[in-house]
């Protein structure tokens, strides 16, 4: 664009156009920004490469938007102007095609959010439009006669003066703002107007051309916002309009219905009232030095030395100056002390009081806001003492209390209104409110001292308040401020929110011990600080909702995959990137008895209430416990009930606190009442009501607050504790808090345990699992597992979860109709299920018990893993016993049972003895598991189950029950060595079974594998018997050569010895006394 020589003219005209549309009240920066915006629009325009259909759609869309927004006049004007440009006869002879669409597209392109801009700047746009019209009418003509040409018929068809005099847009309401940017509607309108008066090069016209420079100058000077014309009456029909006028505005309506309001309707004036007497006012005398004298601004200037006048002419009355002068006289010129500033003692006391409320640098003190420190200035004193003595006195008696008050006020501000990324919690806010309440009597005492000083200065009363009297009067309050500051600095730390809150509570609890001097004050503060904890606990107890948006509660929800629903409750944990300091704080908290009390009841209450909500019993519990008050009120009541041993102990009662400013508030209230009374007699009552509505609203709020009873404050609790006794209190907080929490937990646990026992029948579920998974009902499960053993040994395709589940269901449905359908057999390993070794294939099978969600909180998925481990162990033991019992005695044909044994008979007998050894070992293990472990521990569990009172105790009992079972069944990690030896025994049984079958195949002629090698049927019986005897002898010799009885026997002896040594070590070295009977049985049966 910069290469075109016409760009300079375009840029200049754009600047003029913007000034014309916006006005002269533009800064250079705003004008430059608007010009750059317009230049960017012109630069990015497509010029002649436009699509007529797209332009038509853009116009239609803009018109529709105006209609939908309720701007009917704007929509009609847009439709009329666009049609006028597009249908003009000038474009018929133009060398460019669709040039009219390019012009309309350029106008639309120059707009910026026309609907929104028209809404925001409607009034300003109308003012600018009228300014342009007036400027065009007032501009002189500059056409010379020689430039006159023949009239253009296309232009003379339109009466432009009459057309521009019409009002396409109604004036806006006054409620639209006048802040504006570059107006898109003004762009379109002004562009349309200016295009009608600019002289074109290629066409001839006979219309008078206006001097646009003067038009721009006139419209810039047009007064914006002065269009306060009253509309003229409607002219008669048929009369031609000759004068310019502004019609009344139309009401905007989004529904498309326009109505005309009563515009500029003057209010009806009231009748004149007779004159009244006016109130008299005193004449104000302006004194330019009054403010400087009042605030003592000259005190704070180091370049001005101030010396106050003494009350008497006695030289000792001005001791501060006289002492320095005496030192300078006797210094012999070696040292010269500067004279200190001196003020009267009243000013010093007022500065001290001011510093307690708003610490700033002043005559006596210097403030360091970054460090929250206050220091005493040197070389400033009062007349009666030296500056060094006064400085020491202030530093020792007043400064510690000043710094304590300064730091406490800043702490309260940071806790109640945290800024700069600081975080606060509800517990800390309750603590801050308690600190503020404890500081209230101190503040009132300071204000009372200031009132004495003000009355003394006004000459109302005589006051003997001096610095020494002030320090003695406020000594106890100053001590209390320091105690509060030390307590706050010790109890508040930088840590995660839950650590902040818990650490604050535990530190306050430590300060409630008997030996702490300010025990009662901290006890009252602790009771108030516990309010947030009680509110969260109470909300959780009543609604089962953990309303902890600031993450300050000591427990949290956790994702627990072992629980149906995937959500459990646990103690709130630290983040993964927690610092060692935070871990040390958590360890310190976990060692505090008060924290243990809070966490124990929080976990128990949370789990119980969540369970009640999940089984729809929470409503019944809440309705039953309507007599219970909020937890915090119950805590205070129980705490004072524990103090009933003191005769004068009473419950704290809330009451309004008196204030020194009560007189001022009463005067302000009377002034407001008088103001409301007088305003009702002035002017329009409705207008006066509008002016005084804020006063009435404040009065209504004040009356409402007075009708409500004030909330209980720390001071009310502290006063009740002081009335009980003047001695130290016993540490009763844990007892009172535990009692009120236990009361709620017990009430909820009654519902939970009743539902577990009566509705859920947890004892029946546990008994069912014991009967099925621990084979206490072996007579029921025997057909199922024996059939499973046969299928595995036969190599059949047995690993079908549905078939096994159906078979188990058919067996259990008769005896457990309500629970059999919830037990499923699951194949957990396809690779192991392909094994023909039964003890290996059984590791591929597991049980799944579909429990209700409430029961899954007690019997979790982790517990089902333990149940399955015990079930698989029992299956292996059952298989070993079943397999050994089904090995039938091997008997050879035509042998004497009571005759002497040959070599083959001795080998078979050794095989049978080995079978007896294994039966003895397996029976010993089976007896230990079934009698001493499963049945004994299960009976003990059922007995303890009836004594359980809480859900946490129930879950803990079941957890301990399963842990005890796993340990006594030798399934834990400490018995891994014994478990390996037991697996060797199972493998040895598998090998013995194969050897047993092999022996039968060789010695039993009726066996399917015995081949009849004789094919000659013509032999006699004696010949056949001789041939059979020879064959039997050959088979016997072959078996004697190939048998592995000796190897099996040696392996068993080694395994038996190893198991005996392991059990002996467990019993006598590791003190596992429950294995005593098993160890005796195994060790006493050890083969020689």
Automatic annotation (TrEMBL):
A GO biological-process term: cytoplasmic microtubule organization
GO CC term (a single one): gamma-tubulin complex
MF GO annotations: gamma-tubulin binding; microtubule minus-end binding
Localisation per UniProt entry: Cytoplasm, Cytoskeleton, Microtubule organizing center
Domain of life: Eukaryota
Pfam families (alphabetical): GCP_C_terminal
Name assigned to this protein: Gamma-tubulin complex component
Provenance organism: Drosophila hydei (Fruit fly)
